[in-house]
């Protein structure tokens, strides 16, 4: 992996940092593949229970480096990720199973919004500016916003910005459900880490099952997801983590989960 993405382990949390600050974290092909590899590492390592995605520099990202990528998209189509990597925008299997928290700041444009929408919990610094401006470039959002933005914000709220490319604030992003918390810039990473550590303290099997069941409900509908709930729950009750959870409840102590 190159230095376009930084990795740092803190306990059971993997901090993943976008690292092209001089280019305002514009995504070139190298950065896309480095991020895919980082998410693959989060997925594979049993000691890692939660990821935290953030960015170095003044801005989260200005989006896709069209000058670097546009011609290759037309010529070669969508790139295939190497084995062991995960699509950062969750458009193709295998899907991420471990929780991911995303902290954005500065400018968060186009596929940066879509990257955040593919995470599980999203925080924004006060003063963050969002733009989904693909229609101003003669294209459209192809990183998932046409489904996830609509699902999170509702049709009207999503189309208000998808069809105009207008800028919106962190307060507006919070109002329409794109972010869950607004944090002072100097506290953003600390607050995101606090949430990540909280998630990492929970049962890894429980958090992964929660994401799996929620994804089935969103992608396939309740008709397909509801029949899966009891069989998956029964399997979880057989695990050591579930036994530890019950024992901790009865003994009035904090559980110590092992992920098995």
UniProtKB/TrEMBL annotation:
<protein>
    <submittedName>
        <fullName>Crotonase/enoyl-CoA hydratase family protein</fullName>
    </submittedName>
</protein>
<dbReference type="Pfam" id="PF00378">
    <property type="entry name" value="ECH_1"/>
</dbReference>
<dbReference type="InterPro" id="IPR001753">
    <property type="entry name" value="Enoyl-CoA_hydra/iso"/>
</dbReference>
<dbReference type="InterPro" id="IPR029045">
    <property type="entry name" value="ClpP/crotonase-like_dom_sf"/>
</dbReference>
<dbReference type="InterPro" id="IPR014748">
    <property type="entry name" value="Enoyl-CoA_hydra_C"/>
</dbReference>
<comment type="similarity">
    <text>Belongs to the enoyl-CoA hydratase/isomerase family.</text>
</comment>
